Amino acid sequence: MSTGLKPTSFAATDIGVTRDTNEDRFLCDDSLKLYVVADGMGGHACGDIAAELAVDAVAEFVRSGEKMLASSIDPKDDVAFRTELVEAAVEHAAAAVHHARNNQPGCEDMGTTLTLLLLVDQDAFIAHIGDSRAYRIRKGQVERLTNDHTLQATLVADGVAPETISDRYGHMLVRSIGGDPSPKVDVRVETLRTGDRFLLCTDGLSNQFTDEELAVMVDEEQTLETIVENLIYVGKLLGGRDNLTAVLVETKSQATPESPCPLVDHVAQWFHRAIHMMD
């Protein structure tokens, strides 16, 4: 498998401030060009098992699909093949988690979200279930590439005012991996450009920022490691009520140049916001 743009990546996860366990899982595979985040359903038994099982199942399926494509002598539409591949990979993960849920004692209610990104040549393939998110940051502009499968998002799409939706129920998932052996998977394909950055994250991180705030932090001229570490640091500073996971991918062949100071002012701004929230 070859790619026109060479991605580099960095990822990290943190238990957060209030949780006893970390049920988030992620995958960063620059050789396969596959990136995944999964958030085991909070408060449900075996959420960490569900997330890890889903990530492993997706990676195994995509790896097998790429090997099959590479060894095939039949011409294929690569974009169509991989669009079907990422959808089938998530369906495979859903079936695996559903089977474990029904056969593993104590895990009858386990489930997970799953968001994946596969980069091939000039294309980005995104497949998604749940409320973990994928963003693209291009020249300072952020675009959310996934829709949240939550009760709140569903009601808002139906015309209900967001302020009338109870926080207690608004974040309930209406679509996830675990309960349904064959859930509907959202899939989209985007054209890559040099310098694109993709952020995959669980809701423990995205809930702490507006999309515009995420764009500011991810667009900084810093190493990917520094950006991810700052995202998690500031996310915890602003509450950190859930596990926080970020996978950051950049489509550049050369390392991002380090710049020692730009994030300082932004971190200070969020620190002041966190202080005001505690007043």
TrEMBL record:
<dbReference type="InterPro" id="IPR015655">
    <property type="entry name" value="PP2C"/>
</dbReference>
<protein>
    <submittedName>
        <fullName>Protein phosphatase 2C domain-containing protein</fullName>
    </submittedName>
</protein>
<feature type="domain" description="PPM-type phosphatase">
    <location>
        <begin position="8"/>
        <end position="251"/>
    </location>
</feature>
<dbReference type="Pfam" id="PF13672">
    <property type="entry name" value="PP2C_2"/>
</dbReference>
<dbReference type="InterPro" id="IPR001932">
    <property type="entry name" value="PPM-type_phosphatase-like_dom"/>
</dbReference>
<dbReference type="InterPro" id="IPR036457">
    <property type="entry name" value="PPM-type-like_dom_sf"/>
</dbReference>
